[in-house]
Write a structure and sequence with these properties.
Two copies of one chain form a homodimer. Chain A is an alpha+beta fold and 403 residues long. The first copy, chain A, contains eleven helices and 15 strands. In chain A, strands 1, 2, 3, 4, 5, 6, 7, 8 and 9 form a nine-stranded mixed sheet that branches. Chain A has a six-stranded mixed sheet with strand order 13-12-11-14-10-15.
Chain lengths: 403, 403
């Protein structure tokens, strides 16, 4: 597998994309806010969506269409189209219809996403104008524009593409995502779109997407707030001539799984690293837990603890907060057996502080990526979860979001 | 029932207290850090303690002694005596022994608490000197000094006393507490001590303490971090001549229950209001839920949401974040039936924003105490939970705590 330089969703032949400014985020901001991803061929699609019981009606439109042959995805930022009653469904449907009309396709071949403020009706006139413009702007190298147009408080565009071969046949996977606030498993104000050309059956792709989501996008948390709009969608135009992957035993399944995992983990970590106000990416690697679920719970308790997050922001090697978080994670642990490392430096051995390492660990905490390793010495399961520190800027961004 | 002006734990006849500076928090800070509460008579005691699986060994010493006749409680701030191995138990035990020696009582009649940084061995020489000094300083009006000495990052001392009569017999209840960070149910870096003179059986008092804790101290959250040291202890010297309360049917049980609830709710709300960096007390009142547990879950989701907390800090009427939190609370809700009020102002009706009230709600958000009422319209259960906003100062305090 190789990483494609400046790769994105349009690195896959047959996909075009665009991102335009439709003034959804306010007038003359110069910020792109309507994105379209278009496939020349019909695609097989799979998706995972928010588990929040209060969710945007865009999700209902996606669930209605996702098993159809898909030709396009439309997304806007600046307004979540959530908590606006039945009008939300009508507006989401209308978005697919405007796309269909402009691209001369059927509207049930279009998926739709929205992200932004909750509880405000979509400005449909501006949305419609934006869609018309985005359809006109579709480009073979438009992936980066689309990545830009789905951003809300993100500071960094999130693009990636990789390629590998199955029996000499070139397979490409491209992806874009946005995150920033309301990031927590199941899932987040997280939008992710992945394109590929692999020849694969829908049910296999859906299962793979779900399985890898549990190890990547569902392993990140910025602030524990699960959004109303999270959507992760993969489209394949099946242009590659590999033997159809219709079971796990077919050649190429494992290669594809590994490459897709790489793309999804990259995007998920990019979201955690670019969490609102974040100055550092934090990885918690929990090993030797009794079960995978236990390992995840311990990791999540650590990376979501405001006290751990502020300590990391302050570069304070306060491992006591880490062990306190382990203790309240609701997992049965043996305090007297817990080892904790920050980077390579052991800060706690068998539940007791390793004071002589305090200077070394302060050096570790200067880094941009902090890895906290916890050895529970109880079993053979492990998990990696990702988050970020909690800074003044998180408060600033969210105290001001609407004003 | 009447509230005693400047009331505290020593408002109950027969209790003395003290708080002294033993340099546990550093030299020459002038901050008190060792407290003793002493009862002239043997007391019946009850307690509730942290459910964190990593806990201070002081808790073990309390559990060992709590059913004995109790004469004293010793507490220090500045060091939690947690995550220091078996030495933690020996040191906690030693603290009770030094108290016993100085007050000429048996050491198994002494309870002990610690609060502060985790993972550092107690400076026993300073602790012992502090205990000697605190024993010498015991005073009939020393409750306020004790309230001072248990503070960590608290800004405000938390004292209260109330009195009422059972059949002409005066009953007094006094209380002090500390909180500030790591505040979350089950319980928090929360220490609370309550004194009373009521004639009551131990098992009845223990059950009452647990029952009311679930409605008060377990209904607050500052930052979701459950501490290793939380302890709430009640002592009664039984000086009042009311008929012994050995069942719920005895006269005075309900009066005592209501007064104790008042004291505990006052202390719990004081802790939430004085949460680290807090500028506002936030109450979430959830009504018409299917079950009490559902109501609590919804309330907790709201008051712990960093996005809700930062919006309140920013005085931003962003009710979308409230309904998103309701949605991810894991309670089955009907989005189309949810009403949300901020103060008396309806901001969301049947899941849709009430935009014309936006100006009025901005006025509500100027207040020091914000009440968020959620009507789920699903049943007859309700809950009140308390928290605070999330400000720059929370980050500042916790990024700097140890330095």
């Amino acid at each position: 597998m190789r990483i494609i330089e400046n790769g994105t969703i349009t690195s896959v032949d047959g996909f075009l994309a665009s991102g335009v400014d439709a003034n959804i985020k306010g007038k003359n901001t110069g910020k792109k806010d309507v994105a379209i991803i278009y496939s020349e061929d019909n695609c097989v699609a799979a998706g995972v969506f928010t588990l929040n019981k209060v969710r945007s009606k865009t999700i209902d439109v996606c669930l209605k269409n996702i098993k159809n042959p898909i030709k396009a995805i439309v997304a806007n930022s600046g307004n979540a189209n959530a908590c606006v009653g039945e009008k939300g469904y009508d507006d989401a449907l209308k978005m697919t219809e405007v796309v269909a009309e402009n691209l001369k396709i059927e509207s049930d071949k279009v998926l739709v996403s929205s992200t932004g403020v909750i509880g405000v009706i979509l400005p449909m006139d501006r949305i419609e104008n934006g869609i018309v413009k985005a359809c006109q702007n579709l480009k073979k190298d438009g992936g980066d524009d689309a990545a830009h147009a789905i951003m809300t408080t993100d500071l960094v565009k999130k693009n990636i593409a990789v390629q590998f071969e199955i029996n000499g046949e070139k397979i490409v996977i491209g992806g874009i995502a946005k995150g920033s606030g309301m990031i927590h498993p199941n899932m987040a104000t997280m939008l992710g779109y992945i394109t590929t050309n692999i020849n694969i059956e829908q049910s296999i792709m859906q299962n793979l997407l779900k399985e890898i989501t549990d190890k990547t996008f569902n392993m990140i948390s910025v602030d524990r707030d699960t959004s109303t709009n999270d959507s992760l969608i993969i489209l394949s135009n099946k242009r590659a001539k590999n033997r159809l992957i219709d079971s796990k035993e077919i050649e190429g399944y494992d290669l594809f799984k590994n490459a897709l995992h790489y793309v999804m983990e990259y995007l998920a970590k990019s979201i955690a690293k670019d969490g609102e106000g974040a100055t550092k990416l934090v990885e918690a690697y929990i090993k030797n837990a009794k079960t995978d679920e236990d390992a995840k719970k311990v990791g999540m308790a650590i990376i979501t603890s405001p006290l751990v997050k502020t300590a990391i922001f302050g570069k304070d090697p306060n491992w006591g907060r880490i062990i306190a978080a382990i203790g309240y994670s609701e997992v049965s642990v043996n305090e007297g057996a817990i080892d904790i490392f920050i980077g390579d430096v052991k800060v706690c051995e068998n539940g007791i502080g390793v004071l002589e390492n305090e200077v070394k660990v302060k050096e570790e905490l200067q880094k941009d990526e902090i890895i906290i390793t916890v050895d529970l010495k109880l079993g053979a399961s492990s998990a990696k979860v990702w988050g970020c520190d909690l800074s003044y800027d998180y408060v600033k961004i969210n105290a001001d979001y609407r004003s």
